[in-house]
Design a protein that fits this description.
Layout lengths: L7 H5 L49 E3 L18 E3 L12 E6 L5 E4 H5 L4 E8 L5 H4 L7 H5 L2 E10 H8 L7 E6 L6 E5 H4 L4 E6 L2 E2 L9 E3 L12 E7 L14 E2 L5 E2 L8 E6 L10 E10 L5 E7 L7 E2 L1 E2 L9 E9 L4 E9 L8 H8 L12 E4 L5 E2 L2
Parallel strand pairs: 3-12
Antiparallel strand pairs: 1-2, 3-4, 5-6, 6-9, 7-8, 7-12, 9-10, 9-11, 13-14, 15-16, 16-20, 17-18, 17-21, 19-20, 21-22, 22-23
Bound molecules: the ligand Nc1nc2c(c(=O)[nH]1)N[C@H]1C(S)=C(S)[C@@H](COP(=O)(O)O)O[C@H]1N2 and molybdenum atom.
The site of the ligand Nc1nc2c(c(=O)[nH]1)N[C@H]1C(S)=C(S)[C@@H](COP(=O)(O)O)O[C@H]1N2 has 19 residues, from strand 2.
Length: 396
């Protein structure tokens, strides 16, 4: 009688007390006046969710992961956005920062940040995902919770100027086919991007979730390259050079290329393919007993909108459609949810998604059969969580 658990009455029964037994006013209502206002808000002291810092070789070349299991909706709070820094977080004074656009252009331009804020702007919600996100899963080292397995993923509302507007202003010369974008951090991280993408939907962003970018996200200005691997989203943007070929920078040759089983490397694998992960219930969490649970998670695709998310609660034998929560935006995360009645037996939970191109997220086995085990970037296989009889959920 699994269906029975999905009725409204059944899940209201998850409330811990019925009214008859409760004190009025309920325990925990304060009796004193509250704290005074504050100029810049902070979350409740009871909320403890933080970024996770894996070990790093140097403090400057390091990363942190978003606590996906603790988040609601689709927007990542800026303070919890994942970070990848190859040469630390520079402190840039916006009054002194300039963006140069030059190369194969009729009119090279230099913008101050003040000039920049006067240009026509747009706001769009997009995910950002490091190519290395969940790479350990590919080589058979599954991570223990959603933060550790998939936390190099965040989603923000970005505000800025379309790169197209700036490039049109400079008047491109014939032969212009690529750009090289360079950061103003000490390492001057640079990436080649095809002009076609630069003229399509790339943003030169200064806003993140309604306020200025955080220093960790590239303050005062960064590239947002929707749907493409995190690395090309150049932070602390200083320079865009219009060129006639890719420049084979270290991050598109020595890094972020995928060594295939035949010994050849795939290069310029920019698009982050469709992927999903269940964030609750998931590894590191515990079910309090048989009964109703809402399974929820995130699905996203660098190729556009998510059209379907499916959940399996029986080890992948059968799949059922999950509900996609609005809004369902292109190259943004989409939240899905699925009502589940746990009967107390050992089982596993997994999700898979389909995007608007019809592409279906593969299993790890399908992906490894094609890509092998040399490279761990651009991994998008299905993630499985195991539910044990005692209610504990784990990664194995
Ligand atoms: N200038 C510069 N841009 C950069 C980086 C960097 O170290 N320097 N890291 C890149 C990498 S590898 C990723 S995944 C994203 C991470 O962006 P975030 O730190 O805002 O999450 O920024 C990219 N842009
Ligand atoms: Mo990255």
């Amino acid at each position: 009688m699994k269906r029975k658990g999905l009725t409204r009455r059944a899940f209201l029964a998850t409330a811990s007390a019925t009214l008859g037994a409760a004190a009025i006013p309920p325990v925990g209502f304060p009796q004193e006046l509250g704290a005074p206002r504050r100029a810049y808000g902070e979350r409740s002291p009871f909320e403890k969710s933080v970024r996770f810092f894996p070990e790093s070789i140097t403090p400057a070349s390091s990363y942190s992961k978003t606590p996906l299991q603790d988040l609601f909706g689709i927007i990542t709070p800026s303070a919890l956005h994942y970070e990848v820094h190859h040469s630390g977080v520079p402190e840039i004074d916006p009054r002194r920062h300039e963006i140069m656009i030059h190369g194969l252009v009729e009119r090279p331009l230099i913008f101050t940040m003040e000039d920049f804020h006067r240009l026509p702007s747009v706001s769009r919600i997009h995910f950002l995902e490091c190519a290395g996100n969940s790479g350990g899963e590919q080589i058979g080292r599954p991570a223990a919770n959603p933060q550790r397995s998939h936390g190099l993923l965040s989603c923000s509302e970005w505000t800025g100027v379309p790169l197209r507007t700036l490039l049109e202003e400079t008047e491109l010369k014939p032969g212009a086919t690529w750009i090289v974008a360079e950061g103003a951090d000490a390492g001057r991280l640079a990436r080649s991007i095809p002009l076609e993408k630069a003229l399509d939907d790339v943003l030169v962003a200064y806003g993140q979730n309604g306020e200025a970018l955080r220093p960790e996200q590239g303050y005062p200005v960064r590239l947002v390259v929707p749907g493409w691997e995190g690395n090309v989203n150049i932070k602390w943007l200083g320079r865009v050079q219009v060129v006639d070929q890719p420049y084979m920078t270290s991050y598109e040759t020595g890094h972020y290329t995928d060594l295939m089983p035949d010994g050849k490397a795939r290069q310029f694998t920019f698009v982050m393919e469709a992927k999903s992960v269940i964030t609750r219930p998931a590894g590191g969490q515990e079910l309090s007993g048989p009964g109703f649970y809402e399974i929820t998670g995130l699905a996203w695709s660098g190729r556009g909108r998510i059209t379907k998310a499916e959940v399996s609660t029986d080890g992948g034998k059968s799949w059922q459609d999950a509900q996609l929560n609005e809004p369902i935006l292109p190259k943004a995360v989409t939240r899905f949810r699925f009502p589940w009645w746990w009967d107390g037996e050992e089982t596993s939970l997994q999700s898979r998604c389909t995007d608007e191109t019809g592409y279906l997220q593969p299993t790890r086995e399908e992906l490894v059969a094609v890509r092998g085990l040399n490279a761990t970037d651009h991994y998008n296989g299905i993630k499985v969580w195991y539910v044990h009889k005692d209610g504990k959920v784990s990664h194995e």
